[in-house]
Each structure stands twice: as C-alpha cells, then as structure tokens.
From TrEMBL, chain A:
Belongs to the flagellar radial spoke RSP9 family. Keywords: Cell projection, Cilium, Cilium biogenesis/degradation, Cytoplasm, Cytoskeleton, Flagellum. One of its GO terms (cellular component) is kinocilium. It is found in: Cell projection, Kinocilium; Cytoplasm, Cytoskeleton, Flagellum axoneme. The keyword Cytoplasm applies. This is Radial spoke head protein 9 homolog. GO terms for biological process: axoneme assembly; cilium movement involved in cell motility; motile cilium assembly. It comes from the Eukaryota. It comes from Vidua chalybeata (Village indigobird).
UniProtKB/TrEMBL annotation, chain B:
The keyword Cytoplasm applies. GO terms for biological process: axoneme assembly; cilium movement involved in cell motility. This is RSH4A protein. Residues 1-27, 224-256, 340-361, 396-420, 488-508, 523-542 are annotated as: Disordered. It holds the Pfam family Radial_spoke. Residues 340-359, 399-415, 531-542 have a biased composition (Acidic residues). Its main location: cytoplasm. InterPro entries: Radial_spoke.
Amino acid sequence: MEALSLPAALALVAGGGAGLSPERRAALGASLPLVQRDYRFERVWFWGCIQGVRGAYYIAEGLGPDRAAPRSRLYSLNCLDWSLLTPATKEMLALAEQLKGRFQGDPSFEYSLAEINAEAAARLVQSGKEPVIKEEARLIATIEQIDRAVGIVPRGAFVKTPLGSVHENRHFEGLSLVEAKKLSSYFHFTEPANLKNKTLLEKADLDPSTDFLDSLEHDIPRGSWSIQLEKGGTVVVLRSLLWLGLTFYHVPMTKQFGYVYFGTGEKNLDLPFML
Amino acid sequence: EGGHGPYQPHEPGYGLDQPGYSPYDDEIPDPQARMLAIKNAKAYLLKTSTKSGLNLYDHFANILTKILDEQPTNTVDIIENISKDVKWEQFRKKMDTLRDEHLIPPTFEAAEKYKALFVKEGGEDEHEELEEEMGKPSLPNVMETAFYFEQAGIGLSKDESYYIFLALKNLNNVQPIQTCRFWGKILGLEMNYIIAEVQLREGEEEEEIGEEEEEIIAEGQKEIGQAEEEDEQKEKEPEPPKSTYKPPPDIPKEANGTGTNKYVYFVCNEPGKPWVKLPPVTPAQIVCARQIKKFFTGRLDAPVVSFPPFPGNEANYLRAQIARISAGTHVSPTGFYQFPEDEEEEEEEGADTYEENPEFEPPPVAEMVESLATWAHHVKEILKQGRCVWTNLAQKSEENEEDEEEEEEEEEEQQEERGQPLLTLISEDEGMKNIPAWTAQASTNLIPEYSVAILQSNRWPGAYAFASGRKFENIYFGWGHKYNPESHTPALPPPAEAEFPSEPGITETVDPTVEEEMAFKAAQEEALAAAEEEEDEEGEDD
C-alpha cells in the first residue's frame, strides 16, 4: 500500500485482525519518507510484515519511474532503520521453496542445507562456502514469491505506454461495484504468463494499454481467493488463501487500493484439502 | 534552424512577410476568398458523422471547454483520454429517454443496519435493572480490550470494534446472560464470523435442554414407526442376512455448563445481523475436527465435505474449532485464578471450578514477558476422547447383556486418559520441532513503564493474550486452524475387509467360461450318445 495513505489503508484491512501498533505506525510515518529521499524512489509501498518466532520483519518496496520494473526491497526490524535487500536469484528461490517452518526473526540465522537438499549443500561446499542458507536469503525469496503469486492491482489502474514502461493511470476512477466483485477485474502485478494463451475472440476485447497483465480468473487452484464486501459494501477485500495473510483492499468508485501482507511467510500447501 | 527575420535586403526572404507579397498570394488572391476558405473549413468541421451524430466542431469545443474548466496538469499527454471521456458523456445523456430505476446499492442497506445498532431501546426498564444488579456488569468493555490489543498491533478497526460492542449489548438485552465476552473473529470464504462467549443464567439452559430432548424423542418414535412398517414389508420377502456389525457406542457429550460445553457461543456474520446460538459440541465432532482442515464459508448451514466424514454441518465444525482453540489458548496470569479452598478433593483433575484470587498481585510486565511460568491455562484440556472429563464407556454398556462379550475385549484397551490439570503453567506446553508453543513480547521497548505483555500462540496462529496489571484478556483473529509444521495429511481410508479364508470345505474357484461349459456339455452328450449306442448294440445282439 502507498506509504502516504497508510493510516486510511490500515483501517480498511483491519478486518483480518492484523495491523500495526501506534508505535510502529508513527515510526513508519517518519522513516518511509526518509527512505524515499535517500534512495530516490518515486513511490514507496509498505509491503507488510512477516512474523517470525522471535521477532518480525517489516518490508517496504521502492518503485522507480517504470512501475513494472523489478522493485527494490528493504527490510527493518523496528520500522526505523531500513536495509536494502539484494534482488532474488533463481537459486535462492529454488532453495527457499524447500525450507519449511516459521521464520526465526533473526536475519543471520542459518538453515543447514544438508538435511534439506544434499546436492545444493555439496555444491556450496565445493565452491568453498558453508552448506547453509541464511534467513535473509529466505526472506528475499519469500517476498519475491508472494509478489509474483498474489500481488494484485485493479484493472485499469496501470497503463502501459507504447514504449513499454508502465505508469499509473491518472484517469482511473475506480472499479464499479459490479466489476469489483468479479475476479477478472484484478490483475497480477508481475510478468504475465498466460496472456498469449487466450483465444482470438478474447484478445480482440482486450485493450493493450490496460490489459497487459494476467487476471485472477484462471488462478490454480480455483477458489484460492476470497472476495468479500466489508463495511456494508463500501470496501471490497480480497484475501489470498494460498499465502494466508495477504489482504488486498479497494474502495469502489475511488482511486484507493493496495495490498499488504501480515502473516508468517509460509505458503499454504494444504489449500486443496481445505477448499 | 535559426530565426527567420528580419530579412536584410540581400537575403532571399526579404519582403515576403508584407501583405500582398506572401508566397501563397497567387493561390488566395483576395480576402474574400480567404473568408470563403475559412467558411468551407468550418462547414467541414460541422459535418455530422453518419455513425454517431456528433460533429468535430462541437466535439473540439466541448474538449476545450472541459480542459479550460478543469485545468489538468500535463494535458497534452492525456488529451486522447479526455476526448474519449467527452464522447462518452455525450452518449450517456442522449440515449436513455426512460429514467433508470433508482438502484439502491447494498451499501445503504448495511448502513441502515449499523444505524439500527445505535438505537437505545426501552428506556425506563433499563434504569430499574441497573439498580438491582450487583457485582460485575455482564457486558464487557470491548473498547478497552481493543485499546490494549492495539498496542500490539492486533485488532479490528475502531469502527468495527464499536459496532461489535453495540451488537453485544443487543445480545445482552435479548438473551438471559450472566457473563458475556467477545471471543474473537473467524474469517471465512464468503463471510466472516463474530463470536461471543456467553454464560447463560441458570434455569434458562434447562428449558432448552428439555426442548432438545423432546425433539430427539419425537424423532426416535418416528423412526420406530418407520422401522415397523419396513419390517412388515420385509417379512413378505426372504430377508438377506443381517450384518452383525454394531457400531461402537457414541461417547456422550458433556453436560451444558461443564467441560467443553462450559460456555455457550453466539455468532453473527456482521454486527447488526441477528445472533445465532451454536449447538453444544459432542466428542465425536471434536475427534473428527482434529483430523480435517477446512475453510469456513460463512454460512452456518453449509455442509462440511471431508474424510473422515464430519458428523454435522458448518455450525458444528465451527463450534468444535472454538472449543479446541479455547482449550488450547485461553490463558491468564498465574495466580489470578485459584481453586476454591473449602472443597477438599483428592483428585485435582475433577476440579472444574476456579475463582478469582482477591490477593493476586500482578508481576511486572518485564517478568511476564521473560518467563512463561507467569501464565496459566484456565480452560481444561480436551482429551483424546473429545471430552474434558474421561468417561468409561464400559460402565454404561453393562446394562445391555448382548454386548457383554464384546465389552470384555474392549476393557483391556481402554485406559483412563488423564489430561493436564486445570491451571497448569504454559511453560509446560510442548513446542513443535524448534518452535516454542508461545511467543511473548512487550508491546513497546521505548516506554517500558506503560508497556503491555503480549502472548502470541504459535500452535494456533491468531490467538493472542495480553496482560497489564490486573487486566488481562484473550482473543482470536484468524482462519480457525491449528498450525501444522508438516503438511496436512488426510486420513487414509480403512483397509479393505479381509476375505473369508479358503478352507477345504469352502474353496474359491473360477467360474467356467462359456466355451468350457459348451465343451463340457458336448462331452457329456457324446458320452450319453456312446452309452446309448452301446445299449442299442447290446439290445440288437440279443
């Protein structure tokens, strides 16, 4: 969610019971503008909070002029001092998917790879490093996975210019109430994977400036999103069932939208049994 | 290129900017013609489109009016969008001669319901009751609890908390309630549940039990009637062999007011909707709920499709999960509750009641955070059987003579289950792998004098407790499932029944195929024919 609209947005996602204490909110209000100034971001999003066993990680993302470019991610343990995270590599993603269990809350905690993946451990030993993976790497990989899988925006909120860069659509007035209840009005805000697989009829209806991302309709497994109208229908809240804790909110007919993650950072692999 | 003028006499463009000397003068010789050209251009712009009935002149006029009225920044970048919007507005006004029915979006209905919460009912009666009541008020101070939890970042928005507060007050007025508490919120797929934990005044519960029993008796009689009819029908036909399988007797549920059914729970989907009472929980439901993991949909009558099949619908599953969460995560500072001293019981497990300790001195917040021994469970643990107090089924079925034989075998297997006694410290809770069962934190490190001790459960993510001085409270916000470090593995179906063993008297052989039967028949006929021929021959010989 936008750092500037943080207080209002937190009130809208509070239906799930998770939020920030007044101390953290005040700290964010002070530190996020400084992050924007220091790193020269155009936009700063408060991504959310991953609860570890002994502490929590607060994550923020910074965006440059092209909103679809890879985002810079920062983490903090107290909402005041932010550290930049390195971009995720494929190896990190592959290894982190095999790690199970809660985050510990300490970025330098080391998971021993020998139990989990003997090959990777052997490779690391050969290249002279210890066969461990740090919690920081797991954090980077988890954030990347969550963003790719369930980071969503409403349709029409972003436009793609002919040059390929993506900007916010200044003409976006919000989804109507009818549109807001449909899963097809929301897009994954990552590289599209399914766009080319649509039939010609469907492609003819698309507007290439706004429909350049995958919609949520064809997510597998079906039913992995829960759409609810809260506060008497004034806010539409989508909660992901695959990554429990990701909440997306949008006030129909206004420009307010955003998503935030408050959870333990674990994928819900039991989803098919639970539906 | 640099600027063009003023030209010097020796340069080529000298004098061409004077009227009458421009390069196009031979094309437009006089002003009259120029005016005509302008009129033609304007007439062209005014041409109405055959498709849409608009013309370019009016359209540009509207665009410019809109731009000058609104004065957006960077207009040239969004000019196409502005043009589209202007066209859109045109269409909407012209096409509909009928007025649309005034749509009432659901937001307004819900707003009405919320407003109804604020109405104060029955002014005079309430004053009298307030004077008579002594002791603790039955309505909890939801806003105060919400404030303490907010210090840890847990809780709903203030508006929603206040609506829940008012809804609880309504519940208080409608139902005969002795104590009431906001238990928490469970999220569902379509709707969420807001749950209130309530103790009804004595006497009110018995009426409801009577009603339930009457219903069960009436149903039982109906079943007997139906069975008799079926028996009559069956006597006419040869009956297939009846199975001798008798299902194991149901473990009886605990009486209202004790064990897992100590409290009564009311739920509603949103504050303002009517409260629905959840039925008491049976041990079979708890045992089954431990084996399945399903999302709640938000409708109490939704079926729970699972294996092993859950005995009940979503209302029962919800009640079972509430019972498990309460038993696992309701804690209080050690020493706040104590066993009543006048009762002398040898077995502590039987102790079901506790009372507040008037001499309780709360330890400082730092100590509550550091040592988990400062917290204790005040809800009894649920045994494997599904109850808090173990029952020996063998005792009850002694009345049935038929079951004695089976029973003697079972007695050896059933051993009395003992759970943790009431008021055990939570430091004795086992963790899972390398994760402790509880995480304790102080709400703030910057201002330790006013910080609040917060406990988060790792076994039931979403269960929280806070303590500050003499005040403490438990709450739950989550999806209603237990944390499992490994993935959930559903129960396997039972193994197939063993087949009847092959004995000399009964062996299993393959049925003969049609060819074999025909061959056998043919062989038999040949033998018969051969035998007849021999007889004929013998007959002829004679």
